[in-house]
Backbone:
């Protein structure tokens, strides 16, 4: 099976460990992620004011590109892109007047776009197309012994109309990690915000948020965190440098993209997971648990 | 804190503008405080999200704009999805920020040119773009 894939800016640069491991893992599951031609930045956040139609053009232009290519679905692995694309799509599906205004504004495009394309997060493809039961059969290296703390953040599950799972208690990551053989830690912080874009101008706030989230995982005996958003990843992995400066009791914890562990469990070579790009080196943990030799 | 209430403020263009930009009925809020209870940034705020909504109802524009609260909102939507009255607070906060960032007389809350180059180099694009979308005009 082939599906159009929208990478987004960060996945192509700072989060190559997410992109490369995801493409390799999906290939091993016989799903080819075909990069969408001529994609552009989605704008990263959904414009929430009623008069802000200009910021809906960037995400919708990408969906128009999918339709232009004859596609009816597009997948993305970045939670921020997922949220922005899906909310913009939802907006024009629901609001006839805005749909018309936006389509008129993009009149130089060869075709009109009116909400026909389905936006899917890669986790939804794993759950609904591959299926976790079928995935279990394909696991070559069981992650048994790894105690993992799934972290959703905000953009995968909120608001309700675009969320991939239950808003207050999502379980899709738990189901995926369980299928890979890992033990999963229950953590009430799993849908708490990491501080998001405050990482640019209020690092101390992000360090406080990150400490609370990571400390909760450590307290529950987790070996590592697992997530899907490159901004959460930056705040929870790279910002451990700032967290350790502020909180002397903080000992550090590896943070994985779900796709890195998926690639590993499917028996792909360790280098496909690009662990070298993680800030906290996860290899000592993976060697200790004998998942990597 | 001491605030001055007046009929002019309650019926001001400010209240109408916030309702128009956010698409929310501000008077729906009955001050239960669920938004403030769940807000992950409230620890750093000088005014709680529910207090901001009350102040919008009363037209207290200056008090809101002088508070740090709207600049500490991370648009995580926890408040929006939990409000029992269906008020999408994230949209109200966005409207409040836009009233500042669209005002040519006011400065950007974050000035992109002042960010050190080594930080620009290290930060992921989604952090920078979303920050500038929220905090600059």
Residues:
């Amino acid at each position: 099976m082939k599906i159009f894939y929208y990478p987004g800016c960060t996945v192509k640069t700072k989060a190559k460990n997410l992109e490369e491991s995801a493409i390799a893992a999906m290939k091993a599951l016989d799903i080819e992620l075909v990069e969408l031609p001529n994609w552009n930045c989605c704008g990263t956040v959904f414009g929430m004011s009623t008069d802000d139609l200009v910021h809906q053009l960037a995400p919708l232009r990408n969906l128009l590109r999918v339709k232009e290519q004859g596609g009816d679905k597009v997948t993305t692995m970045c939670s921020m892109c997922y949220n922005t694309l899906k909310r913009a799509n939802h907006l024009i599906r629901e609001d006839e007047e805005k749909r018309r205004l936006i389509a008129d504004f993009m009149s130089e495009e060869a075709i009109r776009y009116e909400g026909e394309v389905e936006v899917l997060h890669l986790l939804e493809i794993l759950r609904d197309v591959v299926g976790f039961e079928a995935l279990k059969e394909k696991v070559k290296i069981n992650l048994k012994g790894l105690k993992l703390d799934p972290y959703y953040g905000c953009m995968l599950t909120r608001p309700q109309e675009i969320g991939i799972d239950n808003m207050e208690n999502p379980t899709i990551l738990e189901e995926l990690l369980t299928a890979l053989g890992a033990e999963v830690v229950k953590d009430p912080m799993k849908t708490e915000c990491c501080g998001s874009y405050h990482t640019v101008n209020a690092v101390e706030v992000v360090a406080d948020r990150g400490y609370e989230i990571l400390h909760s995982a450590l307290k529950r005996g987790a070996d590592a965190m697992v997530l899907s958003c490159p901004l959460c990843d930056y705040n929870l992995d790279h910002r451990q440098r700032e967290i350790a400066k502020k909180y002397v009791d903080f000992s550090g914890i590896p943070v994985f993209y779900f796709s890195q562990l998926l690639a590993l469990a499917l028996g792909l070579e360790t280098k496909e997971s690009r662990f070298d790009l993680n800030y906290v080196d996860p290899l000592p943990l993976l060697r200790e648990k004998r998942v990597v030799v | 804190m001491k605030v001055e209430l007046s009929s002019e403020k309650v019926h001001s263009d400010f209240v109408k503008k916030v309702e128009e930009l956010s698409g929310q009925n501000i008077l729906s809020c009955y001050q239960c405080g669920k938004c403030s209870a769940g807000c992950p940034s409230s620890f750093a705020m000088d005014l709680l999200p529910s207090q901001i909504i009350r102040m919008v109802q009363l037209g207290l524009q200056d008090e809101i704009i002088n508070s740090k609260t709207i600049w500490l909102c991370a648009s995580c939507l926890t408040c929006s999805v939990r409000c029992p009255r269906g008020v999408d607070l994230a949209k109200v906060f966005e409207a409040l920020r836009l009233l500042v960032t669209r005002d040519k007389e006011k400065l950007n809350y974050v000035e992109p040119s002042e960010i050190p180059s080594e930080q620009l180099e290290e930060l992921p694009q989604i952090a920078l773009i979303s920050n500038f979308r929220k905090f600059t005009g």
